[in-house]
Amino acid sequence: MERENTSGSIEIHIAERIVHFPREIIEEILSRLPVKPLLKFRCVSKSWRSLIDTKRFIKAHLQNSAKKRILLDPAGRQLKQLKNCSWCSLLNETVTNSLAFDDLLNVEWNSINLVGSCNGLVCILLDRKTVLLCNPSTRMSKKLPDVEDDIRVMEFISYGFGYDESSDDYNVFAIIVFYSAGAFQTIGRIYSLKTNSWKALKDEDVSPYDFDGAGKFLSGSLHWITADDVNWDIISFDLKGKVFGKVQQPSYSKGVTFQTLGVIGRCLSVLCDYHNTHFDVWVMEEYGVKESWVKVVTLSNFLHHSISEASLFCRGPNGEILLICGFTFVIYYPKYSVFRHSQRSNTDSVVGADVYVESLVSVY
Fold first, then answer.
1. How far apart are CA 355 and CA 18, in angstroms?
2. Is residue 132 within a helix (H) or strand (E), and if so which, with residue range?
3. What does the pLDDT average to over 274-294?
4. What gap in Å lies between CA 294 and CA 129, rounded to an integer?
5. Tens of pLDDT, residues 116-126
6. What is the spatial distance between Cα 113 and Cα 236, in angstroms, rounded to a whole number?
7. CA–CA separation, 89 vs 97, rounded Å?
8. pTM, whole model, 2 decimals?
9. pLDDT tens-digit series, residues 155-208
10. CB-based burial of residue 217 (10 Å sphere; 0-12 exposed, 13-18 middle, 19+ buried)?
11. Distances in whole angstroms, Cα of residue 198 to Cα of each of 216, 287, 362
12. How would you class 314 by CB atoms within 10 Å of its CB: exposed for 0-12, middle for 13-18, buried for 19 or more?
């Protein structure tokens, strides 16, 4: 505790020394600092508090934010804490320590599912029906209003979280199944953070698609893979126009038996399984352009797992590919054509993950 007080005193002392700098210099310096000291610096003066709280500063700070963490999806288990681990540690260290985000979930829920992360905000589904929006850096959280007041028994079967740049708004997407009048029914809803309310999607827009789980957010749209007995499709939902569409796929080799969708870097990606013998990793280098699909690498079935137990979620600075396979992290190093299992402490097994960056973005 004493060390924290000393650290806090040093930070305030530094702040007092630069408080008389020109405003543009102060803004440039502050926009490159982590969130924790910035929250303290709001107390230095009214002008600093006003600056740090402006939308312009929050956006500038987000653009400069370099501290990445990996959010761990607890696979719907009964937990009281959402955990994370260091991106750099996963890549470079033998054992990675998992840390809990304190005070985000103040009660224990029967199940927790990670919906997604965008611009430092994290969306969580609790007990398959309650949605929580939070910013782990600022410790702010918000329980979203109920989707429908008159529906008591329901379950989210598909969901997604993303940002609509055109309206500067954050959206939560939900496909919900509920029981009414002796039958199961399906509805689609979209939540707006600006209005703090849900709006209905047209039934005819929702009904043609059969997909579940969390959508992958990229380029203003959420994405899922759907399948029938014959075809695989990548379905998109544009948050600006609130319309569904399809993304053209790469020219796969014959024999694909399963696919999983991901986002690595700023590119849509597909992991293709060929009868559990090997995997192909495809990346769409220019969003929406079919010709930009590139096969990055072919991986042997190194873990003897079905691809249904594997997912892509990240790419390192030197081309490293991070996967979750089964319940473990696996890192592929293309330069050496080798795999490595990453061990984690202080955590249970996980089935998914997402990249999280520090930010000052508000949940209100």
1. 33
2. strand 130-135
3. 88
4. 38
5. 999 999 998 88
6. 21
7. 8
8. 0.86
9. 777 889 999 999 999 999 988 887 777 777 788 899 999 999 999 988 777 766
10. buried
11. 20, 29, 19
12. buried
Phi-psi region of 315 (alpha: psi -120 to 50; beta: other; left: phi over 0): beta
- Bridge-based pairing of strands 267-274 and 95-101 is unpaired
8 Å CB contact between 352 and 311: yes
Report pLDDT for 123.
Answer: 93
Answer yes or no: are the C-beta atoms of 126 and 112 closer than 8 Å: yes
Q: Is 33 within 8 Å of 137 (Cβ atoms)? A: no
Q: Are 215 and 203 in contact (CB under 8 A)?
A: no
What is the full DSSP assignment across 191-220?
EETTTTEEEEPPHHHHTT----EEPEEETT
**List of residues 6+ apart from 219 with CB closer than 8 A:** 287, 288
Closest alpha carbon to 119 in 356, 287, 314, 352: 356
Which residues pair with residue 183 across a beta bridge?
Answer: 180
The DSSP output letter for 308 is G
